[in-house]
Amino acid sequence: MTALGALASATTSDAFWAVRRDAATGLAAYPGDTTAQMALLTASRDSDARVRVRSAHGLGAFPGANTVDRLRDLASDSSRFVRGAALIALAKLDTVAALPLIQAALTHPSWNDVERNGAAQALAIFRTPSSEPAKPTPP
Predict the structure, then answer these.
(1) Which of 29, 39, 87, 138 could form a disulfide with 8 if both were Cys (CB 3.0 to 4.6 A apart)?
(2) Do residues 52 and 77 touch, judged by C-beta distance below 8 A?
(3) Residue 139 within any structural domain of the chain
(4) 3-class SS letters over 8-46
(5) Does residue 22 lie in a domain region?
(6) What is the CA angle 107-111-116, rounded to 5?
(7) Range(s) of the domain holding residue 14
(8) Is residue 131 included in any domain, yes or no?
(9) CATH number of 30's domain
(10) Do residues 46 and 77 make contact, with C-beta atoms less than 8 angstroms apart?
């Protein structure tokens, strides 16, 4: 079994959440690989939010419609940590899809401002006219 195969298997089927989480982190080192992408997409549906967070971050290295669609879904996950990670990854892949979700998340109060922090980090990834601060007018 290759290292990639071992990581994919551990990400989707190990009994311990921490192994699944850490294996998902390792899969991000294989951008563009279909096996890694499929394992991360599967892990993004894990019952443990810590695994979904790492899967969302990892998916940011895999452009494509399937990934963007899944990250949009994760942007409304039950875990605020997953929502933030999904916004950050989505901002890397599709700024058009990410911006309205980021803007909405900036208005959501949450414990320790987790959602707003994720949205702010996502917004910092790209610059658009609506994300740039107003320029001061000369005196």
Answers:
(1) 39
(2) yes
(3) no
(4) HHHHHHCCCHHHHHHHHHHHCCCCCCHHHHHHHHHHCCC
(5) yes
(6) 35
(7) 3-125
(8) no
(9) 1.25.10.10
(10) no
Contact between 8 and 28 under an 8 Å Cβ cutoff? The reply is no
Which tokens hold the place of 50? 């810590």
pLDDT of residue 133: 46
For position 139, what pLDDT does the model report?
58
Question: What's the rounded Cα separation, in Å, for the pair 46 and 27?
Answer: 15
Using CA atoms in the order 111, 117, 122, 123, what is the torsion angle rounded to 10 degrees?
120
Taking the alpha carbons at both ends of the chain, their separation in whole angstroms is 67
Specify the pLDDT at position 134. 44
Per-residue pLDDT tens listing for the chain (139 residues): 799 999 999 999 999 999 999 999 999 999 989 999 999 999 999 999 999 999 999 999 999 999 999 999 999 999 999 999 999 999 999 988 888 988 888 887 777 778 888 888 887 887 655 545 444 555 5
Its pTM stands at 0.84
Work out how many domains the chain is built from and give that number. 1
Write out the two tokens for 2.
């290759």
